[in-house]
Amino acid sequence: MSVIETETRIHTDQDYILQAKNIKKYFPIKGGILKHTIGHVKAVDDVSLSVLRGETLGIVGESGSGKSTLGRVLLRLMDPTDGQIVFEDQDITKMRYRKLRPIRRDMQIVFQDPFASLNPKMSVSELIEEPLIVQTNLTKLERKEKTISLLEKVGLRSEDRYKYPHEFSGGQRQRISIARALTLNPKFVICDEPVSALDVSIQAQVLNLMADLQDEFNLTYLFIAHDLSVVKHISDRVAVMYLGRIAEIAPKKNLYETPLHPYTQALLSAVPSTDILHKKEKIILKGDLPSPSNPPSGCTFRTRCPMVHEKCSEVRPELTEVGNGHLVACHLYTGK
Amino acid sequence: MELKQQEAMDTNIEVPVKPDKGNSPFRIALKRFLKNKLAVMGVFVLLAIILAVTFAPLLTEHSPTKSNLLLIERPPSEEHPLGNDSSGRDNLSRLLYGGRISLIVGFSAMIFTLIIGVTLGSIAGYYGGKIDAIIMRAADMMLVLPFLVLCLTIVAILERVNVGIFVAIIAITSWPNLTRIIRGTYLSLREQEFVLGAKAIGASDFRIIFKHFIPNAIGPIVVNATLMMATYIIIESGLSFIGFGIPQPTPTWGNMISEAQSLRILRNSPEAWIPPGLAILTTVLCINFIGDGLRDAFDPKSNRR
Predict the structure, then answer these.
(1) Which of A273, B136, B216, B268 is deepest in the core (most CB within 10 A)?
(2) pLDDT tens for residues B201-211?
(3) What is the nearest CA distance from A90 to chain B, expressed in angstroms?
């Protein structure tokens, strides 16, 4: 896995900012009289992925597919049950909180809900300065200058720094969140559905802002979303998650033009199209997302898959390369 | 201001914008508090009481502890407006100096309970797990012990109790309630994304507790602290009334009322026990009004109007 081919280039370990191998995150279910563990919710179940320096890797999936949990585990905001996370050639899987602190400068997160992710009792300047106070020895004046320049970069006014989060709209709050995440000049930012709580008109503004900032700060994004069109707008590569596993991962062009996994095909067919000449046939998936505490045997998608066959319930399909950096976990393509 | 800004724009000099702090959550709470008439009245009356007991030496020349055998149970006179008690001490002076003790006991017991409660509640609520279980089981054990019996036992063992020991007894027996409240608030705060955000920038546990948890839990903390103080004043009076509180000759409102245990005084000299009773009533009412006002100010959702 350390050397995979993407389009024409061969990538080595140095090209990756983050490599995750076989990440699992199980949440215990407590029950019974003695509150012992009676089962596990397999939020993330054996996910491996690598993020290239400077790229935007989009992750899409339904709610409950484990994409937010994956993001949090990758930043060690949650401890993985199993697996290995390598960030900038350092294994951070088991690193202690205190030792992890200097590494946190380089990795940041923007949360989904701009109403919950900003401390309501802190003013904007306190919010943006906090990372500087924690991580650097800058003086008050230097911090203030940095705050003002960041506010202006994300499209807010410098006077806004005296205000409190409740005085802003959702889009403005998300801009504050972005400014806060960028304060320490990180290399890698996980965007955990940063626009799903915003109005559609504001979504585009914030997405464009994020794209501009990516160029300016040389950022690598891991962009989590449940909206394929949002991901298409910003990503270089896209991973599709289903029930805690990656179903398909491919460069954007491949994924949108030649989706291989039946789940990806179904998702793409649901995206509204403006092309009236080529009406797509909608693939309607039956049933609901199965419970991640008791996933189906073999391929987890088999209960809803239109192309299901016997092998699917017996063997779990592995993520396999089918060419051009296009990986898919489906027996339709691996049985060749 | 507008003119200045215009000028600045013309000459390209940056005018420091006046920080508009009118909208900080604290200011908003203050504004809401000031709209509550009962609470504001409570603040003024309580301030008057605090001023009166602080400047007691200016209001009366008599000592609150010096007995005068010639003046035992004298009715009010010009020299002694509230008469004298069964040991010949001046009642007015005892009322003023006694207020000091009652308020100090209530206030310092509240502060000590706050220190214990916030510390233990923060540890339990923030870290969770085993340490949480240990602290909460200890709190349960304290709550199981009947407060009055515990107080009486400690007082009986120590024989003579002074203000410091009395405050310690109250604080040690009353921390579990506050600890529980703070832990509960933290448990809901812990799930908030901004706490995760603070962890993501590498903030220390200490910083997260002091900058993120306590400011967001300040409402319940302040409200409970206020109401606790009122309770402690009542507890002090009650225990002093039955003779297990601050012993004579130190005056407190509680042991002034205990004079009324004598039927003769109860019947013939209401001036000896009505004023301290009213003082307790007024003080506790004021503090409770303030507490209710603070509750509404910090948590607008609880506002029933």
Answers:
(1) B216
(2) 888 889 999 88
(3) 17
